[in-house]
């Protein structure tokens, strides 16, 4: 079917029922919450006439459950490296033809090299953003309870029961992300973050179980607004989300002073990737969106808003100094040296982990 030049909008696509072109005027995205700038999707729709249906999640587990159930209807998803690795092995994604992505040249090759460890030749992914898990805290509330000299870049704040107890009244939030949190606790107690040994799991479980009575909740996105509003005083969360909380608090001007630190004990470094499910109904539209995200101006505006690093060399000169000079986003070398990468867990270990985690959450 031939489309006239006037026929560029989503409305137009809707009336050309049954044609391939009409199908490709829709794009179903499933992405992490708080992970684009307000105009990212709107500008794409304006430029392409593609109508985007945009759903969000806040955990790799949620995404994986949808993908593995099949027929998710999604065209583009954003898994983290470790989960992605096993999803690729399970055949969840289709290959991405890089020769069709004119902006792929903007990808930071060093980072792509690291991701290739999870996906040989990066056949099924294009990197989207990267970051760490760290500690966001309300400076005044925490200092009032722990004193001026307490080291605010230590996981002791969250994992030592006697310290957590002092923060209980102002509110501690922990990521509801079993694999990620357990790897951080393993590392904190001096074990291999990627360990699948039952005795390590038990030891980390013990640490969390002892601090658990002092936690307010486990959740992977609510802490942004709660921290910004002064409803909690510490959160173990994703770096960009915690920096968004800081930014929101500053904009609100209510005297809530938030800071972020990367734990001195070391923490998880993750990469989120763009991937097209094997059964995506609109893979061509997904390719257009990927190529759009790969544009330097788009990646920079996104990074400037969400406070996550983007692996895009063309974006670098367009980043605000608040981003490019932020050590919570681009850590210094000594901090980088202590970061670790997660590898995919086996299904057998995952079952034990899930059981342990649900006991921790319910405080049993
Ligand atoms: C965005 C969280 C993305 C980081 N809200 C998790 N990989």
Automatic annotation (TrEMBL):
The record's listing under InterPro entries reads: SBP, Sperm_putr-bd
What is the originating organism of this protein?
Marinomonas arenicola
Q: Which UniProt keywords apply?
A: Periplasm, Signal, Transport
Subcellular compartments: Periplasm
Protein name in UniProt: Putrescine-binding periplasmic protein
- Signal peptide annotation: 1-22
Q: What does this protein's UniProt record list under function?
A: Required for the activity of the bacterial periplasmic transport system of putrescine.
Q: Which SUPFAM superfamilies match?
A: Periplasmic binding protein-like II
Superkingdom classification of source: Bacteria
Q: Which family does it belong to?
A: Belongs to the bacterial solute-binding protein PotD/PotF family.
- Mind telling me which PANTHER family this protein's record contains? NORSPERMIDINE SENSOR, SPERMIDINE/PUTRESCINE-BINDING PERIPLASMIC PROTEIN
